[in-house]
Design goal:
alpha/beta; 7-stranded mixed sheet; 19% strand
Length: 214
């Protein structure tokens, strides 16, 4: 019984330890963050690509941002780690159970919080924005900030579909939060694909600016 208790305790705590290690590693990365102050002036949406999570998650915990995490086993692990980094976590998805997840994000924004979302998920294809983030900022009437990331040296998890990576200690990194996008609260559903393309272009532009500064 004691062995079982120890296993359960380790299982419950290791995501927190991993979060602490990630925070420590991130402090060894020479990071220049441009435009972060924009996200602290009130509720907003923050949009990024899948794969950039490990570079970005240590950067927004201090503002108490809300993230959407799936109900999967991996999601439970991520939720514990994100909470340890200062995030507010809501469980759901932008596909399965999408309504509940998006409603939770809308509620978070209306309660005065920023929400951070990988807009090309949860299963890709990478670089293609899904409508979820558009609905969140439309319903709540807040700006959406596109985020681009550039780094000088990173370890890429090549077997991951999103090519997730970890910025390496003593490397250089630029996180660029670009000017906000706004979308009308009332719009024809046929406009949503056009809005998604706007978000894609904005994130790519933010990434180019980050690469140029790097």
């Amino acid at each position: 019984m004691q062995e079982c208790y120890v296993k359960n305790w380790v299982h419950d705590r290791w995501p927190v330890w991993a979060a602490i290690i990630l925070r420590f590693i991130s402090r060894l990365v020479r990071t220049k963050a441009i435009g972060v102050e924009q996200t602290t002036r009130g509720p907003c949406g923050i949009a990024h690509w899948h794969g950039d999570e490990l570079a970005l998650i240590p950067r927004f915990g201090h503002i108490g941002a809300t993230i959407l995490v799936s109900h999967s086993k991996d999601g439970s692990i991520m939720a514990k780690g994100a909470t340890a980094l200062g995030y507010r976590v809501t469980r759901g998805s932008s596909t399965r159970g999408a309504v509940g997840g998006l409603l939770a994000l809308i509620k978070a924004v209306r309660n005065g919080h920023a929400v951070v979302l990988a807009v090309d998920g949860p299963q890709g294809p990478r670089g293609v924005c899904k409508p979820g983030i558009i609905r969140v900022v439309q319903k709540s009437g807040v700006p959406l900030f596109p985020v681009g990331v550039a780094g000088s040296n990173r370890f890429v998890f090549k077997k991951s579909w999103n090519q997730a990576y970890l910025p390496l200690p003593f490397s250089r990194q630029v996180v660029w939060i670009d000017k906000p996008l706004f979308f009308p609260r009332k719009t024809d559903a046929s406009k949503i694909p056009e809005y998604c393309r706007r978000v894609e272009r904005a994130i790519r532009e933010a990434q180019k600016k980050a690469e140029a500064l790097l």
